[in-house]
Amino acid sequence: MIAPIAGFSKFSKEEKIEWLANTYFHDSEAVTALLKKYWNSDEKLQKLHDEFIENTITNFYLPLGIAPNFLINDTMYAVPMAIEESSVVAAASKAAKFWLDRGGFKATVLSTEKVGQVHFMYFGATEKLQRYFESIKPELFAATKHITKNMEKRGGGITHIELRDKTDDLNGYFQLHCTFETVDSMGANFINSCLEQFAKTFESNTASFAEFSAEEKDIQIVMSILSNYVPNCLVRAEVNCPVADLTENENVDADEFAEKFVRAIQIAKTEPYRAVTHNKGIMNGIDAVVLATGNDFRAIEAGIHAYAAKDGRYTSLTDASVKDGVFRFWIEIPLSLGTVGGLTSLHPLVKLALEMLGEPNAKELMQIVAVAGLAQNFAAVRSLVTTGIQKGHMKMHLINILNQLEATEEEKAYFINYFKDKTVTHSAVVNAFSEYKSQHA
Ligand code: MEV
Fold this sequence. Notes:
Elements: H1 13-24, H2 28-37, H3 43-50, E1 64-72, E2 75-82, H4 88-100, E3 106-109, E4 114-121, H5 126-143, H6 145-153, E5 157-165, E6 173-181, H7 188-204, E7 220-227, E8 234-242, H8 254-270, H9 272-292, H10 297-308, E9 318-323, E10 326-334, H11 348-356, H12 362-385, H13 389-404, H14 409-418, H15 426-439
Antiparallel strand pairs: 1-2, 3-8, 4-6, 4-7, 5-6, 8-10, 9-10
The chain binds (R)-mevalonate (MEV).
Residues 85, 277-278, 280-281, 284, 380-381, 384, 389 line the site of (R)-mevalonate (MEV).
């Protein structure tokens, strides 16, 4: 067994790499060379990245692509997307162009409420706790003034603090359920700082509440943390057009396409196995923009999937209808995003992405991200109910297979042309490539 390592975080970057390469690899020189190859030659830029996290050894690249032609609320956007999956950006661009010719996307922010909770245990009389909470509530606001001052200047702050009795779920469990407006910041630090102060104030003032017995004074704080479930931080995006405008070529019948499309959404609405994959396709678009704009895609993923299951069954995040000859397709999702704070003013490519989007505020970014999800889903479902997904996907993946086979640029150009009218599968490419190689040996 490998011996545990002490004080690793104190090692220099070189020492960390040396330990790693010597401990886990046969060819430590090759490993060291590979890791260093990904360092940026601009030392200042590299240091910035090193300091984002602990124990950095190198950078891990993801492509940053652009999906142009997104018309959202009558503004044209080129949308930045950080993602590794080959067909995602192409699909988004295609959907953007398709809807550009049909009036573009309409998006609206429905609400912007953020949530945080202080979870605690109390084993006394509930009415006394309720009276204590009412008596201490002004103090909760007062004690956080130093934290909320700047946020209030920007139009945000604490909006509500409520005592919730959760004892039906867990003996002795109560919480302070708190809501916040954090304007253009995602607000995690602000919310957590407020919550930790609430907890301190709430716990430390019980002694002066005369109604409590000695035991009741012993409120036990378990934890104070924001929630990534934000069902009241909602954005809606929609596209619509006459059904007759849905076709791009004479091979697809517009009515049949619309009907099949709506059926596909209905299936995702009722069948969780399909809903998960359907929503995964939506997240292809959402995560890529969230990542490119320096937001927390894990928080967004967790919140959106919880929302997809809010009625007790996991379901599609998008909806579609055909009524009076009009096709409508929409999405409604919770998105807690920031355009100030966090990585937004630190990571040079995030700054660039936000500038490219016209320095959006958080609400505008919510709209852009929701549209990216809707567009991605449109592209996926359209392929699924017409050509099937593999055609477009494998065309994009062809380059990856050729790269795995170490094809030259000339060979890649040859095979892109060769597979124009053929079905791309991994084995078809391998076979064609080896035949080509033997002929050109
Ligand atoms: C692949 O990354 C995403 C899809 O599977 C989504 C879908 O099935 O709707 C194509």
